[in-house]
Amino acid sequence: MLKSRFYKSKIEAGCDEAGRGCLAGPVVAAAVILPRNYQHDTLNDSKTLTKNQRINLLDEIKHNALGWAIGIASHQEIDKINILNASYLAMHRAIDKLKRRPQHLLIDGNRFNPYQDIPHRCIVKGDSKYFSIAAASVLAKTFRDGLMEKLSEDHPQYHWHTNVGYPTKAHRSAIRDFGITQYHRRSFQLLPTQLELF
């Protein structure tokens, strides 16, 4: 069972991102503040859940959360400042939008750029350990998947409606056959040997 809190007496926000390893599209982060003793039987790391489970959890999370927000860093920003810094930027933007100011941040992963004067704790595989981080992972992934599915309508050959930008065999084959779109991350190795893409 996941844990409700790290500090029971503080307003705590869990933060996670989605899309770090993708070849196209933005990186999306979410920040979620849950009630102090929140519990849920299904909520877990979004990667372990089915698409339908994630969608079903959306209303549950939004309805019960004391605060939640989404932050985005574009593919252009990823190319400019690198994916790690863009992930931090997306998290900062999500925290910026919270209607309640958290007193402590739980960050999925092992590194983070401090946000203002709010203390934080990095938790490796935190989305499978704390409900607030798991909730953030579900919000971030479902939001980003929706964006990529929408972009896929204009670029169906890249199969973003199923791979949401990750480096699948079909995605890389499409890059090889059709070149890149304006949404691809030019700073990433899009093909094993990067020839004639630009």
Q: What is the 3D form?
A: globular
Low-confidence stretches: none
Helix content: 25-40%
Please provide the ordered H/E string of secondary-structure elements: EEHEHHEEHHH
Find the CATH topology.
Nucleotidyltransferase, domain 5
Number of domains: 1
Which structural category fits the helices and strands?
Answer: alpha/beta
Mean pLDDT, all residues: 95
Please, could you describe this protein's structure?
By secondary structure, the chain is of the alpha/beta class. It has a single domain (12-151), classed as Ribonuclease H-like superfamily/Ribonuclease H (Nucleotidyltransferase, domain 5, 2-Layer Sandwich). Helix content is 36%, strand content 15%. The chain contains 6 helices and 5 strands; from the N terminus they run E-E-H-E-H-H-E-E-H-H-H. Strands 3-2-1-4-5 form a 5-stranded mixed β-sheet. The longest helix has 22 residues, at 131-152. The model has no long low-confidence stretch (mean pLDDT 95).
Q: How are the SSEs ordered, and which strands pair?
A:
Blueprint (H helix, E strand, L loop, with lengths): L11 E7 L8 E7 L17 H14 L2 E7 L1 H7 L1 H15 L6 E5 L11 E4 L7 H22 L7 H4 L5 H10 L20
Parallel strand pairs: 1-4, 4-5
Antiparallel strand pairs: 1-2, 2-3
Helix pairs in contact: 1-4, 2-3
